[in-house]
Amino acid sequence: MMKIEAIEVKNLSKHFFPSMKERKRIRMQQEGSEKGTKNNIIQAVNNINFSVKQGEIFGFLGPNGAGKTTTIRMLTGVLKPTNGSISIYGGNIWKHPIEVKQILGHVPEEANVYMDLTGMQNLYLIGKLYGLSKSERVNRAEQLLKQFELFEKGNLKAKKYSKGMKQRLLLCMALMSNPKILFLDEPTSGLDVKSSRIIKKLIKEYNENGMTIFITTHDMDVANELCHRIAIINQGKIISLDTPDNLKKLTQEYLAIDCHFIDTVNVNEIKELHSIIEVQQNNSLYHIIVKDINVALIELVDFIKTNDLNVKQVSTNEPKLEDAFLKIIERGVEN
Amino acid sequence: MIIKDNEEIFSEELKSERFFIQVKRSFAIAKKDLKIYYNKGPVVIQGFLFPLILFFAFTVGRNIIPIYLISGLMAMVMFMTSTSIGPVVFPWETRSKTLERLIACPISIKTILLGNIWSSFIFGCVFSIVPLLLGILFFGLWASINILIIILGIIVASLAFSSFSLILSVPPTDMPANTMILTILIKFPILLLTPIFMPIHAAPYGIVSPLTYYTDIINVGLGESSAFGPHGLLLDFCILILFGLGFTFLAFVLHGKTLQKRFRG
Asked: What is the tens place of the pLDDT at every residue in A146-165?
């Protein structure tokens, strides 16, 4: 059966006129001007096209300032596009905002719950704004708080919640009306492991029950684990759109060596080795992308010997989605 | 059908239904505003402290007759309290990013503004009753009072000044202090132009201040005759209603224009 388009975006653009502060900053950065500042305009999103099918988890990846949040704000009817069209199940969010927003749920990037209200009061407020009856509000709020492991703290003011709890409460608020499409802007950013796991698990569950999910994230594990398709946006333009597996294939000619050093090693020194393409450091783990594994291993062993380094563990791996992402971004910048 | 081919996805109400639904949702906004903002610094300063300080500044050492004392105090409290929440909500919610949360809900900017008006209205009404009760208790004004005129006056004036207060939060700033400066610059001259704690005809320039017409209504309600002649009371109500409607319309238009500037960066 053909799947219905839940979201259809055509030629979508958004530009801002810079404020006085931004004009100063732009003038200072003028030489390295990246994000279209022609004619004193900031081109946040530049003519993007994509569609999201019903029941899909669609990832939107990009570096800071790429245009992810601006896009999600346009899709949820918060920001008005400069050009282009957005169709949600065939409905235009700017012509019929009330009807279209009624079927959307939105988790913005920053924890923006009402700190002076309790978790329960926050949910009741959203329930009222979506037109739920009193009994629906009570039942739904209790059900969601239990699902997201917040029920015990439901009567506590939100300002007493941890960041992870606030993020879970935001998700509960977005799910109050049981939306057909859920927009998540960096849902697991900076969260503790417990909150992150709960959120990922429930996103999967809601999607399995038919909810379409649009997610922006920096977290490649989240994107890899959850998303059916991923669009990569940089400098306001979509530079790649495919499944995670196909995106990873872009780096198939490469392999990765994961090396745990006991000593601290300068990343740049490893990068200087001839066969090394890229190095990412995460504490003592060095994720090294190489083209020829045999040559790279010999070079690496020489490097370890020469510098008298202690190694805890070495393993070879397939490149991760993160490697593909970096490659696509670099290619986009070169182009 | 507005949204073709998707009857099962979108529910569509009639225009009249949609109006009542939005009004109902604005009550939820009002309830939220009252719960959150009643104890915020700028509201406490402008809603409680300023009227108290100004009352003493205006009255200490002066021989004021009880009717003018109570009507002046009621006018000042009404004006200061009903305009204390409105200018705070938008910058506060822009900064805490809760405005983005509200705009993403199925409500319009008008619904949010209407909610702000209701909350300021309730705030203004409740606090205006306090000086009235004081007047009744300490000056025995009960005998000459026309409670209907006073209640109607409080309702109309509170709505009018609440809508006026929304104009003060039009600049798309996320700093409540910025709107406070603007608020003081506009509210104080209005207050100083109004002939409070004195007969209205003693200050003819007072006709430019909308607060004068509320003061006149209260004076009439407390047993005085209107300063604007036999149809003065009607004139007072008409001017306050026009003032309220005009500022509500202006707030809808201006906030609609500046709203997008709040969601940058």
From this structure: 999 999 999 999 999 998 89
